[in-house]
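Lab notes, practical 5.
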Amino acid sequence: MTMDYWRRRWLARFDLRHDQADNAEIDATFRSGVEFRGTNLWVLIFAIFIASIGLNVNSTAVIIGAMLISPLMGPIMALGYGASINDSALMRSSLFNLGLATVISLLTSTAYFMVSPLTQAHSELLARTTPSIWDVLIALFGGLAGVIGATRQVKSNLIPGVAIATALMPPLCTAGYGLAIDNMAYFGGALYLYSINCVFIAIATRNGAGDAVPLTQDQDQAHQASHGDRAGGAGDAGAKRVSGHQSGATGVV
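Output from the prediction step:
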């Protein structure tokens, strides 16, 4: 067994194509979570209330629960997917719904903190007011993990895990807290962290989806035709070489 054989064996372990879903299924997966209407909208509102209460009482478990049920990842990943396939309509729809979800989340969290009797800013809330480079890296790697999960034949728990790791809900609720107590430093820092997460998850999804999505039918036909032309050219060259050898052999006899 040659070194090239072992190299191929090793690289095959990192190949994502063996359990990748087909093009239509991947497309449907990304488009299904874009629109905030009915169920998605109410789940978002309830998740914002849960996350706000968790921040208010400084409960990590409650905050994680809110992130698990949050549908905010849908339009962000769809935005990145739309960019990867050059679908401007999907990108516009994703941006609109993400903006709508952001505004509703801010209004909901602000309303909660305005009526809550608990006004002290605990550690869980303060941690969302000062973003750093580590938050950028978390969003980037989280987005890459999310696009891998979204493009598999068998869906796993990757997307909820990404939602927890990148923490989209707590910064939005913290921004609402800043509005409720008229603290623009809290509001600005939390909204900046939320924006960082959204942008880098979308960028990671755009890059990951660009590699993961199979060729379209037209692209696949062009690809096969190109290979066919090269194979045909190689076949003609081979035939000429064989013919030349036969002619030489005949001349020797």
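Observations recorded by the TA: Residues 217-252 form the longest helix (36 residues). The CA atoms of residues 139 and 192 lie 13 Å apart.
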